[in-house]
Amino acid sequence: MKRYYLLATLGLCSKLYAQEVDTTTNRLEQVEVKAYFNKQPLLRLTSSAAVLSSQMIQSLQSPSFVSAMNRVPGLRMEERSPGSYRLALRGSMIRSPFGVRNVKIYLDDFPFTDAGGNTYLNLIDPSAIGQINILKGPDGSIYGANSGGVLSFYSKGFDRSDKPEVNLQLTGGSYGLFQEQLNAILPLSQSQQLAINQSWTRSDGYRQNSALNKKNIQLNYNWQYAKTSELKFTGFYSDLGYQTPGGLTAAQMESDRRQARPKGGPNPGAAEQKAAIYDKTFFGGLSNQTHLSSKMTLFASVFGSSNQIKNPFITNYEKRDEKNLGTRLYLSYADLLSQDLKYEVQLGLEAQKGWYAIDNYDNAQGVATDPQAKDKLENSQQSFFARTQLEWLERLQVELSLGLNENKIGYQQRYPVAQENKENIDFGSTWMPRAALSYLITPILALRASISKGFSAPTVAEVRSSDNTINTMLKPETGTNHEFGLRWHLWNRRIILDAAAYTYQMNNAIIRQVRDNGAEYFQNAGKINQKGLEASLFMYLIRPQTTGMVRSLQLTSNFSLNDYRFKTYQVGDKNYKDNKLPAVPKTVWVNSLDILFPNEFQLDLLSNLTAAIPLDDANTVYANRYHLLQAKLSWSKSVCSPHKIRLFVGADNLLNEKYSLGNDINAFGGRYFNPAPLRNYYGGMSFNF
């Protein structure tokens, strides 16, 4: 780890955008990140963190979060086909056949990760999101079970607006891409505001059997019904359908990279079976925050979701009916111990309950026929937490927090043999401590250090995976994270340096495996050592100005170094000790250049260099390294002020790289690869009125 610390202090890179631009006043504003119950300056935060603004989310391709997320060191998002996403934060996608594992996700402070541990990130519409806050490293002490970190999505429409605002955007592109996005912020009174976000996205997809059709509508409402109290509501309905082309072997990819998985042995092909996922979901949450006094605040929320999912697959046709309910509440108290010493204390609870009916049938070319298995599962999880923070002279911050996580899964088979009684899997109670500090050495240089415990219980989808059996042998992942970092703001924040080095020792890592017929199952893999360096450098080469050929020029350089290896892991007579962890590239280096020209012309460039990625436990198969180059040119013009029209064109994979984004791990039959599109284009317009 010594060389990691040396690289960090040399400042090869840092974490990400600790600022936004205020072009009106021509100055840099330091971003505050909402973390640990309140907003804090990113410079003094005790954890490694990043902030993605709405502008960053929309700076390149708008239909997905992929480009924006992959700017953040330590965060990796993959797209196997349109609508099929995977995400890992300080971890591997070895556990994620699709979706998200090890990471806790919130939407407007409501847990979006459900009681069963699933996070359907593809249901969230990027156009509805105004900001994403990212906390890296285990934060189970107050955020429930996770071992990689926490992502908090905040919707547009909660910031107060004096006048109605409406924005319509239309986008079209290669492979039948079309997207319509409508955002409206409607002040109802001085104390009430409603926001409506609606979108429709469709695509034929780059490969055979990879079409996408997604319809989404979201409402956000806030009402300050008293001087000290505010009520908020977030709710959306999503109708998502996307085809899944399946993995290819290296030879198949070389022969025809646009084909879907062909027939193999006794198994038909993906197109023949009309492999796809259809998900109709309602999600809603209501929260109330009341300042009981100048020192005490009470926050309480209730939330729930209903998912109706159909998944025709190669070997079966799965139908899932999932329902979730939960609550999160806490009491916060802040005061002064002395003129120089502040403190705050929080006590709270987060609890969720989920009910899942999972039925599997034979799949006859996209039609469910004879039943294979039917099960009912229930999942309950509770997290009790306490936290205290001391702040001395706005220089030293010390945080101590402790969580108690409890997780149980009940299951009952309904077919082929009906069980009379429900059985339970109890993952027990786990204490989750965290201790952290940040010290402002000078007004522009801060050091931080932390130690925290990670915990991630098996999800319902892992206990009852696609092989239609209940796995009672899985154990939760646990581990301890040690971390050190620095943030350095130079030259009046024209240069921002942020770096961190960490080591996470994981026990009972959960690994995805695949049976001969393509069905997946999961098992624990002993111990894993995760060592890493994450860093990024932000520079304003030309600060915002009103004259000159270049009105603004900013450069960011983000770097991740990952040394993730099995410490103890043996399957039968095969010992994988010291092997690299699959699905983790050794290095990722992402650079962006944003240039503003006269007459509101803007050019955004993004370069992503990702090293080769091991795809199996034995490290015998690798995905090739790739260099992804993206560009977007936009022009804005005021029309009948204050209305504004904006035109844009963009290109993805300008270097025409042949790469795979979203590889299948430990794939049976060598079907590891999901080829990504070659050079492709898009364009569109938006209108504010």
UniProtKB/TrEMBL annotation:
<keyword id="KW-0813">Transport</keyword>
<dbReference type="GO" id="GO:0015344">
    <property type="term" value="F:siderophore uptake transmembrane transporter activity"/>
</dbReference>
<dbReference type="Pfam" id="PF07715">
    <property type="entry name" value="Plug"/>
</dbReference>
<dbReference type="GO" id="GO:0009279">
    <property type="term" value="C:cell outer membrane"/>
</dbReference>
<keyword id="KW-0675">Receptor</keyword>
<dbReference type="GO" id="GO:0044718">
    <property type="term" value="P:siderophore transmembrane transport"/>
</dbReference>
<feature type="region of interest" description="Disordered">
    <location>
        <begin position="250"/>
        <end position="271"/>
    </location>
</feature>
<dbReference type="InterPro" id="IPR039426">
    <property type="entry name" value="TonB-dep_rcpt-like"/>
</dbReference>
<keyword id="KW-0998">Cell outer membrane</keyword>
<dbReference type="InterPro" id="IPR012910">
    <property type="entry name" value="Plug_dom"/>
</dbReference>
<dbReference type="InterPro" id="IPR000531">
    <property type="entry name" value="Beta-barrel_TonB"/>
</dbReference>
<keyword id="KW-0812">Transmembrane</keyword>
<keyword id="KW-0798">TonB box</keyword>
<dbReference type="InterPro" id="IPR037066">
    <property type="entry name" value="Plug_dom_sf"/>
</dbReference>
<feature type="domain" description="TonB-dependent receptor-like beta-barrel">
    <location>
        <begin position="193"/>
        <end position="654"/>
    </location>
</feature>
<dbReference type="InterPro" id="IPR036942">
    <property type="entry name" value="Beta-barrel_TonB_sf"/>
</dbReference>
<keyword id="KW-1134">Transmembrane beta strand</keyword>
<dbReference type="Pfam" id="PF00593">
    <property type="entry name" value="TonB_dep_Rec_b-barrel"/>
</dbReference>
<feature type="domain" description="TonB-dependent receptor plug">
    <location>
        <begin position="44"/>
        <end position="149"/>
    </location>
</feature>
<protein>
    <submittedName>
        <fullName>TonB-dependent receptor</fullName>
    </submittedName>
</protein>
<keyword id="KW-0472">Membrane</keyword>
<comment type="similarity">
    <text>Belongs to the TonB-dependent receptor family.</text>
</comment>
